[in-house]
From TrEMBL:
The lineage of its organism: Bacteria, Bacillati, Bacillota, Clostridia, Eubacteriales. This is GNAT family N-acetyltransferase. PANTHER family: ACETYLTRANSFERASE, GNAT FAMILY, N-ACETYLTRANSFERASE ACA1. It comes from the Bacteria. SUPFAM superfamilies: Acyl-CoA N-acyltransferases (Nat) (SSF55729). It comes from Ruminococcus turbiniformis.
Length: 163
């Protein structure tokens, strides 16, 4: 696969929503519980400061995506937040790493100074390893901060990266 990343387009709504919904349905990473219809997904992805689409340059198929938006407002508006989703059948091919690296660059270009993750689930060892590799700083752990799909609570770890 030749993975490239581009800006979201409304024509991506169905495929992007499907990738997003896989993560939501797994119930182990995103805080959202609601599944997006393509129409809701289109609105959601267009509302972000930036939505990046990872796609295979040869087939055009969407492999993953990220959303980037302010983490807060006003005096904290220089801090952004992001979420990443990779198609389940394509995980382990460094697509997530490409998305995070692109996001770091895009956040800086958009004028953000810091990228903060509010809720990296402690059981998400692949994400934790990637964030460590890319130089994210762990701020601390919030015990039982994430409700897993099976009903138990898992710790979350707050991170940041200077842009």
């Amino acid at each position: 696969m030749d993975i490239r990343i581009r800006a979201y387009d409304s024509a991506d709504a169905q495929a992007a929503s499907a990738v997003w919904n896989q993560v939501v349905e797994e119930g182990v990473a995103f805080p959202q519980m609601e599944i997006l219809t393509p129409e809701e997904g289109d609105r959601f992805f267009r509302e972000q400061s930036f939505t990046g689409i990872a796609y295979d340059a040869q087939s055009g198929e969407i492999a993953g995506l990220y959303i980037l938006h302010p983490n807060n407002v006003g005096r904290c508006g220089h801090i952004c937040n992001a979420s990443y989703a990779v198609r389940a059948d394509l995980r382990g091919q460094r697509i997530g790493e490409s998305l995070v690296r692109h996001c770091l660059e895009k956040g800086k270009k958009l004028g953000f100074k810091i990228l903060q993750f509010n809720a990296v689930v402690a059981a998400n060892r692949y994400a934790l390893r990637l964030y460590e590799k890319l130089g994210f700083v762990r701020l601390g752990t919030i015990p039982g901060g994430f409700l897993m799909k099976d009903g138990h609570y898992e710790d979350i770890i707050v991170h940041y990266h200077l842009l």
